[in-house]
Amino acid sequence: MRASINRPPTPDVDEEKRDEPTLQDIINIKLIESGEKENLKELLRERLIECGWRDELKAQCRALMRKRGRSNTTVDELVRNITPKGRAMVPDDIKAELLQRIQSFLMSVAL
Amino acid sequence: MGSGEAAGIFGDILDAVIVDVASEAHRAARLGFDRRLNTEEEEELRLSAQARAIVGESVANGDTSSKYTIDVFGQLHPAVASEIFECMNCGRPIVAGRFAPHLEKCMGKGRKARIRANANINLSQQRKVRSSPLPSYFPGGPTHTSVSSRTPPTQTSSLTPEDTQKSGLDPNDGTSEESHDDDDKGQRGRIQSGAWQVQTYL
């Protein structure tokens, strides 16, 4: 019973720090609720598979795992390692296509 | 508004896709079903370059006009599939390259097949219409069994003799040359089997 007395204070204090949801948050929520985020993700995935980006990135993962030993590498390590490469490898036209779709979504939400 | 957020969102989505790739590669390696993990990198590059070369040289030489297509393993494939198998509809042995046109005729998309199918339907409709009211008036029932037993196993010309027999139908008798006094059910069963026979003409 004593343990319960020592629990951390209820987060009344934090309430003030937390702002109203930012614009970014609102957009994100709308994206997810409408299902558009999922659509965009699928579209991006498809395009990246078509252009071979995914295979290249997987090869990078494999190379890394060969070096560090199969059982040693964690997902985190992999992600940390390949994220900058992955971002750089995205072809420009695919990036443009996705950005355009996001833009039109933002317009349609009429913020 | 606009591009800043859009780029941010794009980054989000891209990150998610990257994590997917990483987790899948990781899982494959950990569970041991990634074959490529073991082959050295240089070997992999060499193999893929080799495969590309095989396809590339046949294209560059203008070989694509020949009857054989060559795939990345160096295997040759003839332009028209030559394997022979059985059609599941009619049971005939068919060359694979000619299967589609055969199915058209066999299954009824083509003109002749459709005409034949319609003729069969009309026939069976006529028989059903003529047979059903009669048994209630004449308990002995007219004997249509001759129709089914007489139908010759050859083609469409058989329809016309049957039609003329039908048109000469008396309420009493129909076309009986055999006179069994069957049940109604028996007759209907037989007529239906007769119709079934007609349908199986080729």
Automatic annotation (TrEMBL), chain A:
<protein>
    <submittedName>
        <fullName>Uncharacterized protein</fullName>
    </submittedName>
</protein>
From TrEMBL, chain B:
<protein>
    <submittedName>
        <fullName>Uncharacterized protein</fullName>
    </submittedName>
</protein>
